[in-house]
Amino acid sequence: MTAGFATYSFLPWLRSGVATEITRRDGTRTGAPRAEIPITVELDAAGDPREATAALALYGPGEITGIDTRVVIRAAPQPGASDAVPSELPMAEFDEPDFPWRYTPATADARSRLRPWLILAVLADEDITEDTSGSADGWLPAITVTRAAALPLLDQSWA
Questions:
Q1: Strands 128-132, 142-145: parallel, antiparallel or unpaired by DSSP?
Q2: pLDDT, averaged across the chain
Q3: Which of 61, 83, 89, 115 is the most buried (most CB within 10 A)?
Q4: 14, pLDDT greater than 70
Q5: pLDDT tops 60 at residue 1
């Protein structure tokens, strides 16, 4: 008699609501920064049934102007820490596990992989040439990176 083994998969990008209707596969190049979902409404006007269809554009990464610090429930090293241990893995844990995928304007590819709209990048001081702080009028902080090789490979960000 052989014992059965369960297989578990972690899919934090699973969606609910209208986002389940996104049909663009991750990796498909469309140039559109948002996912559009066709919505059909059926109306009955005094016995005259009619349908109306419109494209509903979902929020995409371009609409994000800031991240509420309350969504980050744990981070290592702590912001502003000057004694971080270089051999320890940096991380950010979110209150809602789907947050890094929530605004990705695509659905998983044929291999069930979906790249997030948000990634964690760890850079050395020498890899940054310019550091701009955010402002009260909605501008996010920004950096200029000297070498593209210092950034993580985006085709592996699904992992």
A1: antiparallel
A2: 87
A3: 115
A4: yes
A5: no
pTM: 0.76
Rounded to an integer, what distance in angstroms lies between the CA atom of residue 60 and that of residue 31?
A: 12
Q: Where do we find the tokens 């596990």? A: 97
pLDDT grade for 149, boundaries at 50, 70 and 90: very high
Say whether pLDDT at 19 is over 80.
yes
Spatial distance between the Cα atoms of 39 and 53, rounded to a whole number of angstroms = 5
List of residues 6+ apart from 81 with CB closer than 8 A: none
Scanning the structure block, which residue is given the tokens 């996010």?
140
Q: What is the DSSP code string of 84-100?
A: --TTSPPEEEESSTTGG
**Which residues 6+ apart lie within 8 Å of 152 measured at CB?**
119, 121
User: Between the CA atoms of 73, 79, 85 and 86, what dihedral angle is there, to the nearest 10 degrees?
Assistant: 100
